[in-house]
Amino acid sequence: MNRLLLALFILMTTAAPSWAQLAGTDTKPGDPCTAAEEGYVRRNASVARDSSEITLMCDGSAWQSATGSGTSGITALTGDVTASGAGSVVATIATNAIGSAEITDGSVANADLAGSIALSKLSITGTASSSVFLRGDGTWAAPSLSETDPQVGTTTASNFCKANVGGTAIDCATAAIASADISDGTVALADLAANSVNASKIVDATIALADLSATGTASATTFLRGDNTWAAPAGGGGAGDYQILTASGTWTKPAGVDPNQAIVVELWGGGGGGHSNSSAGGGGGGGAYRKLELRAGNVPASVAVTVGAGGTGGAIPTVGGTSSFGSFPPAYGGGKGHYSSIAGGSAGGGGNGGSIVGAGTTDPDADDGSSAAVYGGGAGGVTSSISSATHDCSSSVFGGGGGERGSKNACSSEYGGGGGSKAGAAGTSQYGGNGGTANVAGTAPGGGGGHNAAGARGEVRVWVIP
To answer: Burial letters for 104-126: b for 16+ Cβ neighbours within 10 Å, e otherwise?
Structure first.
């Protein structure tokens, strides 16, 4: 046994070098080792004397080099990139080792640059200074400003220079600037000398009112006064106005009315109501007309206006209401139709017309101006049964026409309201309202009501004369 061990020792210590060719099939790293156990080590031959092929270890599936590197492996880096040591080591790029050839064209971005590029880094000939510029041929040089082909025509001191017609040269021979040389709308007021523009320089009908320096407001009611002010002429010319008021309220004087302007007010009182008695109930009298001519300065800024109501018709009719314009004289309403029952029969009559003196009444003889009334109301027609005398109604010019009874025609008025009737024709008016017939109300303004009908409302019209 001792002899066998000794022989084995001698054999191992005298074995051929590790790169000697061994008998049998050689095994290389990466060959399968499925027949051997994991971790099994074997010695192998290498013709290339690569130590990584001599000692192999089985990793369970393939033979792997147990030495890690051979005699031909890289152990150090030299040159622009240097590294040394075993295993994983750090490689270092030498200073100024990267040149233009190592950089891919177009791959350096702005973010890769540190700061700005100094002029000293540029590959340019010449010397950089404040009097030279970089020329296109890569040279620092002073620019040449000499004109090899002058394009200036005739020059004259203080003359205006402009391009010639062909635009090929500058011509300074023109002594003045022509209109064609100035762009429209470019000359400001500051460019004009004092008193340099006269009437002959202004095109006719080109100056608008807004271009004038006058104070005040230009309008249809103002005129340019000698002191360069827009104003309404004294004594008239102010704002004109016309209003028709058919219900009581307030009239307001328009703004801008001159105190000396005239204000004309027309008023009609309400027409009286007609009586309903079937045999003798008379129609109502017409309302009166009044005209006021006032100075605007005497009229308050606001005036209370009352429009007289028409009288009601029926068994107990009422007189027409009074129309008024502030505290100025009013126009009174027409009287109501009447009826009286006496022994042996009935008798009745029309209401008196209103006047500028007072309202119409039921008194058949109170014509306030007789049958030829001008300003007074016309008398109502009546029978002798209820009066000292039998008479027909009367007409008027400004007062209301009298109402009538029975089959008589009611009386008329030129300006006041016409009287109402029962079976005859109603009274008429040229400027006021007409009276009504049986069961027909009077028409506005101021018409008396027919038998058993209401009188018409009054009216107020206000004119401000321009």
So the answer is: eeeeeeeeeeeeeeeeeeeeeee
